[in-house]
Amino acid sequence: MKDYLRSIINQSLHQFDLSDDDISEIQIEKPNQPEHGDAASNIAMNLASVLKMNPRKIAEQIVEELKYDEQKIQSVEIAGPGFINFRFAENYLFNQLDDILKQGANFGKSDALKNQRILVEFVSANPTGPLTVGHGRNAVLGDTIANLLEWTGAEVDREYYFNNAGRQMRMLGESVRARYLQLLGHETKLPEDGYKGEYIKNIAQELIAENSDNLVEVEEVDPFKDKAEQIIFNDIQSTLKRMNIEMDSFFNEKEVYEDGSINQTVKILREKDLAYDKDGATWFRTTEFGKDQDTVLIKSSGEPTYRLPDIAYHANKLDRGYDQCIDVFGADHIDTYPDVLSGIEALGYDRSKIDVVVYQFVTLVKDGKPFKMSTRKANFITLDELMDEVGADVTRFFFEMRDPNTHLEFDVGQAKEAGEKNPVFYLQYAHARIHSILRKVEQEYTFDVEDQPNLELLSHESETALIKSLLRFSEIIQSAADSREPHRLINYLEDLASIFTSFYHDCRILGEEEGLVQARSALAKATAQVLANGLGILGISAPEKM
RNA sequence: GCGCCCGUAGCUCAACUGGAUAGAGCAACUCCCUUCUAAGGAGUAGGUUACAGGUUCGAGUCCUGUCGGGCGUACCA
Fold first, then answer.
1. Which candidate, A64, A108, A70, places its Cα nearest to that of A92?
2. Per-residue pLDDT tens for A497-524?
3. What domain range includes position A327?
4. What is the distance in angstroms measured between the alpha-carbon CA of A194 and the sugar C1' of B61?
């Protein structure tokens, strides 16, 4: 519809002497006030300065020349400072409703990103412990953004990047060893900065079960570290699965060392004089890219900092032919990505292909008090524990319901009191309610399959409002995908559910004249479909009974 | 000090990327279950969008400054 409105406005604009630049962007919006119609354009106001004319005058001229299909548009009005307001024709609404029913589970999909291959990298937690609430936001945002992109036609891969080498992993191994020895009765202390979580003991138990005390004399940390990694990764995978998340690939940082791309990266940077040696370390001239300081790529110990493999890894992604790479990470990593982009650019890649979604921290609120967490100190709440308390659907919903860019307060109490105060249930309830009605309709009426419902019977204002709301679904998906903001979909679904509830109260289905029963059932069914499709994108179940 | 993000109803947050009268949910108050699920609905109250300037037809949204909060600012990840 928006495209149609753009095209007819564009036609009418030919009367003015305008360059293409001036009219490239014809904005169509849904007005806040219903009396302003179903769609509005501010084009006249935007052209006022270019044309040096009164915007209302421009609007009048546009409308005068406007040729539109009366099957689609019922009326066009000029209002306020120069808005052009459109009202949709009923026939158009009925046709579109019919279309929703025909498209069913596919309604809302588009091919806007057809043939685009997109890699979404998210979670990417190193296997040093179970996923915590902090990772939860990352995981859910990444997965939902991936879903949204798939619905707009892109071919999406989900990737988990990790590092199982380095100091943290050695520390993990040492922590397991200490617990192992302790459990076997040896006097030993957990290393300074060791991992104190209960899960370390469980890993040690596992080692005892498999090896009894055979590892007591072992010098290397590997048996402890490897076992820990294996158990923790299994745990992470099962947590993700529980949240309805399935990765397409796991990328080990080790790969960019082994295939030589680390060395290659440094070599190219040196050739371009963007890397140099100082104080025994290798530096990246990030000042060339607007930073205050240069950045160390390789420490004087010979060990690269994480920035170097990060750059090589992103080059690797682009080498794999992705048109767009999206990284999801927390605000604490905000400083690293400009360096990665600079690195990518220096290597000759198009930096605009890397897109970053930064989300702000999660504050867990329990018993009305904020709860600070740290993996190493072990006073964290794992995602699994959270899901034990509130369930997977609620967990996903809470992580999705806010703008990624603002702090998220996750009130466990509110989430748990799920019954009444929880917004997730409002959506699921609306869906279940519709199915409950449809079941009854099915019992009490038998409609001929060939007998098309007469949608023109849907003339109540609650019915019209509901149809209009349903029709917005595709563009909401589009905007949520473009902006990488899943909460827009939630806002929409809540609005839709609320509009449906008004319809539910105003318009009975059972007991009405048969044609009306059929038409309203069709509308209810379309609503359930959109709710189910939307919840599906969010990774939340759409129960038919509650 | 510098960089990024945030500041909207008592609380948690929206506001379609600059549009028309700033909206929801909790909490408070008043009503509504012989009617397809009351996990619901109708209504009342609650605001100088932190503050001060600026840009323009038009600002919660953009720019500058101030105040307040979060996160960074390592040869840690």
1. A70
2. 999 999 999 999 998 888 899 999 999 9
3. 117-162+247-359
4. 47
